[in-house]
Design goal:
Blueprint: H1 2-36, H2 46-57, E1 69-73, H3 80-85, E2 88-92, H4 98-104, H5 114-123, E3 136-141, H6 144-153, E4 158-163, H7 171-192, H8 198-222, H9 231-241, H10 246-265, E5 277-282, H11 291-298, E6 302-307, H12 326-338, H13 350-363, E7 367-373, H14 377-393, E8 396-402, H15 409-426
Parallel strand pairs: 1-2, 1-3, 3-4, 5-6, 5-7, 7-8
The structure holds iron/sulfur cluster (SF4) (2 copies).
Length: 427
């Protein structure tokens, strides 16, 4: 009797997993098709779409030929260099998957933010091939949602949690984080079975450094007027980063940058001169939850900048080594992870205000969309100060609260179109 029940349950789980993969593929394919059909898409975007397609539509195991062990990470503040130096491959598990969110709701409270519900839901069915061999996760405890996620995910695989200092600017915070990095080093060495030597870590930092330089070249090209690339394409290529090795991603980005330079020389652009230039900020937008940038760009705007951790925030800073010892490398990683990070989980808001101001100036931004994932209090807390600053600068702002569902797309479209019209009118 009991073995029949087990077989029945297994069949049910199998069917649920297949449904999960099918639905994920359908939503992801829809967005990939739409963004590929936009005007003036650079040819060099193909490798980035392909990897997202392999992961989300074809459900392929992306690191098949490699001996690397996948380590799930849940924040840009987890230094990927340590994972690489331990012979692992960091894969960001923060999820934008609506189907996973529905699964996550079965084990997490309804009011938890969509990102953590979807992250839990992605791990649960064990059916996405790219997560198939992910037996370890590293979760920095940045907010209450992530704090409780640690415990939940421990039911599924090994989880290492990290304490994040509450302030980002004082020296004490850096020392606090260096201590956390040593604990992470021990965890990775113990579980991945490889010693993190000075040389391995130094080489991994060198990779990040080279990637940040190529990324900075991309940001310079992207900030051109009129825009040479759609913002949603930029968001997609940063989403693709987590499923590639850094040198591979950097190589594709370099080809894209060359193509963008040629476009500038021959006067090809992705948007007209009078197109409203929009900046996105707020809670992370992770593929396939790209509905906001897609609506903006299919409604007559262009996203020229973003202050989000799946976009520009996570990729432009470089680790600076002042002391050639293991401790010097750990300090370089801690400073890079904490000092420039403008995430509102830190008590200080001034740094984020300054960064937003600089991005607006650099990218000639006309309006800001402030994205709040329902249940994400930390971003909502900072809204008022940012709105006040933008008003004083004469920059229009619209706060948009949503989750991953597609049900509010029409309503969002109406609001975003009206916002773009106001900007066009005042330009
Ligand atoms: S929003 Fe903040 S806490 Fe969340 S992943 Fe991004 S940097 Fe980390
Ligand atoms: S910072 Fe916001 S989006 Fe990120 S896990 Fe916490 S509540 Fe969710």
């Amino acid at each position: 009797m009991s073995s029949n029940v087990t077989i029945g349950e297994e069949a049910l789980n199998k069917r649920a997993e297949e449904r999960f993969v099918r639905k994920t593929a359908r939503i992801s394919a829809k967005y990939l098709r739409s963004v590929r059909e936009m005007n003036n898409v650079p040819e060099a975007m193909a490798p980035f779409w392909n990897v997202l397609e392999d992961v989300y539509v074809n459900n392929k195991k992306i690191f098949e030929e490699s001996a690397l062990k996948t380590v799930g990470t849940y924040c840009v503040m987890v230094p990927e260099e340590l994972v690489y130096a331990a012979g692992g491959k960091p894969v960001r598990i923060c999820s934008g998957n609506h189907v996973a969110l529905q699964l996550g709701e079965e084990i997490l409270p309804k009011d938890a933010c969509p990102l953590v519900k979807a992250a839990a839901g992605s791990i649960m069915p064990n059916s996405m091939a790219y997560l198939g061999d992910c037996r370890y996760s590293v979760i920095p405890v940045t907010c209450d949602c992530k704090r409780k996620l640690v415990d939940k995910l421990r039911e599924f695989h090994s989880v290492h949690s990290m304490r994040i200092p509450s302030a980002s600017q004082d020296d004490g915070s850096i020392e606090e984080y260096v201590t956390e990095l040593y604990k992470l080093k021990d965890y990775l060495e113990e579980n991945l079975g490889e010693k993190i030597t000075y040389k391995k870590l130094y080489d991994a930092i060198g990779e990040t450094y080279a990637t940040a330089l190529e990324t900075e070249r991309f940001f310079r090209l992207k900030s051109r007027f009129p825009s040479v690339i759609h913002g949603i394409h930029s968001i997609m290529l940063f989403n693709a980063y987590t499923y590639m090795r850094p040198e591979e991603w950097r190589g594709h980005l370099s080809v894209l940058n060359d193509e963008l330079e040629k476009r500038i020389d021959s006067g090809v652009s992705a948007a007209r001169k009078n197109t409203p230039r929009i900046m996105l900020t707020g809670s992370p937008m992770i593929f396939p939850n790209v509905k906001i940038p897609y609506i903006i760009e299919s409604s007559g705007g262009v996203v020229v900048a973003d202050e989000t951790c799946i976009g520009e925030r996570g990729y432009s800073d470089v680790p600076v080594i002042n002391d050639c010892s293991m401790d010097g490398l750990m300090h370089a990683l801690a400073v890079k992870a904490i000092r420039p990070c403008t995430c509102p989980v830190f008590v200080d808001t001034d740094k984020r205000l300054y960064r937003i101001k600089k991005l607006i100036e650099r990218n000639q931004v006309d309006g800001v969309i402030y994205h709040v994932l329902r249940g994400c209090l930390v971003y909502d807390y900072e809204y008022q100060r940012i709105e006040d600053m933008l008003e004083s600068m004469g920059v229009k702002v619209l706060r948009v609260e949503t989750d991953y569902s597609e049900e509010d797309v029409e309503q969002l479209k109406i609001r975003l179109e009206a916002f773009l019209e106001v900007i066009k009118f005042s330009k």
